[in-house]
Amino acid sequence: MDFDIREGLQHTSQKQVELNDTAKHYGSGTLEVFATPAMIALMENAAMQAVANHLPEHLDTVGISIDVEHTNASAVGAMVNATAILTKIEGRRLFFLLKAKEGDKEIGKGVHVRFIIEKEKFMNKLKQQGS
Description:
Structural class: alpha+beta
Largest sheet: 5 strands, antiparallel
Distance between the termini: 27 Å
Helix content: 10-25%
Radius of gyration: 16 Å
Low-confidence stretches: none
Strand order of the largest sheet: 1-3-4-5-2
Strand content: 35-45%
Mean pLDDT: 96
Order of helices and strands: EHHEEEEH
Number of helices: 3
Number of strands: 5
């Protein structure tokens, strides 16, 4: 495959915590604090964005594994961000270091693996499976 992906690529995604980002909304808890699933989605978005502009139009990435810790809570209204740094490439597997913060306070960290796919082939396979 011909693309320009290299170790060190990174991206930071940011959002303000809203009620629909809370553990209470997700059903993953009862409190109106930034939900772990919402933090993971922000982290995955950062990883996806880190390489998106370096792939030809017919290719994309999909997340295949994630291992994170949610280390501190964030309230509704807080501005949070997640940074993903591409640390290793093994064929079509891309390995990212993840960090989430609210200002200077770490709120999460972990690792994430994405896989480079051909969009059309990937979607055709799903259609054939009846998914």
